[in-house]
């Protein structure tokens, strides 16, 4: 089911159309060990039934190469426009999904994803993502949106070098920024490169009708991006 859903994201089609297309690809079905495709409604049900921790594990397994030097950044993905009736019935008001990605700056694999429909500040999201991946990180680069003393202290406690620019409040902040490893810090722009690639090849919108399914869809988009990269750069 994980593989079929990844193929659905790769094809960029609805459940029904993806199943129709895959039914004409016997070689692909043989490769993944299927003799018969499930009905598209079964596919949709399994997307909701498989727990989020499994989708996270799928993403983690797809990020084959990691150096421990990562960058964190966020961008917006459009929430697919629902009908006016649906929007009114479900209080569907927020039109963008804020997606934060942890990216290995040397291999460009996505190692973790965070999604929210709220206006949660980057300085609150950053520690949550870093804490979950502390064992794999050696350094973490981020822009001034993640500037928080508590965040830096927590990174150092976990043996992670913080490469986060200080907001300029006094001359000491200039000194802190000047001492930062410029080459390593500027690699944080790789996050923007990854986001651009996902939006260009896999779409800049999510189709699911609830935020928790949209989060799973983003995990799948990140996984498919990683799988594409592993094929292109084995």
TrEMBL record:
<protein>
    <submittedName>
        <fullName>Transposase and inactivated derivatives, IS5 family</fullName>
    </submittedName>
</protein>
<dbReference type="Pfam" id="PF01609">
    <property type="entry name" value="DDE_Tnp_1"/>
</dbReference>
<feature type="domain" description="Transposase IS4-like">
    <location>
        <begin position="68"/>
        <end position="227"/>
    </location>
</feature>
<dbReference type="InterPro" id="IPR053520">
    <property type="entry name" value="Transposase_Tn903"/>
</dbReference>
<dbReference type="GO" id="GO:0004803">
    <property type="term" value="F:transposase activity"/>
</dbReference>
<dbReference type="GO" id="GO:0006313">
    <property type="term" value="P:DNA transposition"/>
</dbReference>
<dbReference type="GO" id="GO:0003677">
    <property type="term" value="F:DNA binding"/>
</dbReference>
<dbReference type="InterPro" id="IPR002559">
    <property type="entry name" value="Transposase_11"/>
</dbReference>
